[in-house]
């Protein structure tokens, strides 16, 4: 029982650390505590000196911990090479390149409870088959819409998914995680492999997440392990008229002098999962507005989720089994009145235009 409780506490801790709202609430409480008289203020001067010595030791511990996580990253890279043949086989089955053997397709689940029912259903099916010749069973190639089904099942990903993205993601054949090479800055890349399609020319779309594992000199006690500090996307070579990250709108403009009206068209950004490959950049001075910070934090969260959950356990997200106990990334519902306004396509308000334009 104690092991179950420890595991539960661990899951709750993970949920808190991955939830921006929860972290903000904790920080508020910590700020309140920091303004109350601390225990150390009441200590004799000689004891305070010794506490400072303990803090120096704690800083050294933080640097050792950082080295520990660097070695963990090397272990991840090593074991990624062992996992990869299995993931390659998964891709072959999903795409239909390889047909698994009967032995590979065997899966025992709840056999004891279902044996009697299965036998009864088998007998009933045999009787029905004799009554009517069944139509030929459709045999699609591989596992159709494997990754698209996962995207639509996971809240974090479905929030990014738009209807116009779905035909493109039907061509997604695999997602791979690539770790940085030895002696290179810590990072990992997500590779989205697509079969040839009429939307873009790329066969692989990449997203690189840069990480660091070192205490902040200004706040070394805040170190809790590697963190994502930046990310880079890639350029998508869209075929003409297929770019779903932009949309064309019409706008009426009125001539200042003659009063005549003309209609112009222009392209504006459009909601799409594929904006994932064009992330917000971390500013060099570290100053960002609140919306940008939230967007970037969400991006880091999604990248981590792909790496830690989606890619290693894809089949369980496809079947829905992983969703039953995976509540780490649930988003809070907007309260009434906080819904975002969505501008509809179509004519905008009339505006004057310069006749020389």
Automatic annotation (TrEMBL):
Keyword Nucleus set for record: yes
Taxonomic superkingdom: Eukaryota
GO-annotated biological processes: nucleosome assembly
Record's compositionally biased regions (Acidic residues): 100-118
Cell location: Nucleus
Region (Disordered): 94-139, 322-357
A cellular component term, taken from the record's GO annotations: nucleus
Compositional bias segments (type: Basic and acidic residues): 119-139
Pfam family, any one: NAP
Entry keyword set: Nucleus
Family stated for the protein in its record: Belongs to the nucleosome assembly protein (NAP) family.
Full protein name: Nucleosome assembly protein 1-like 4
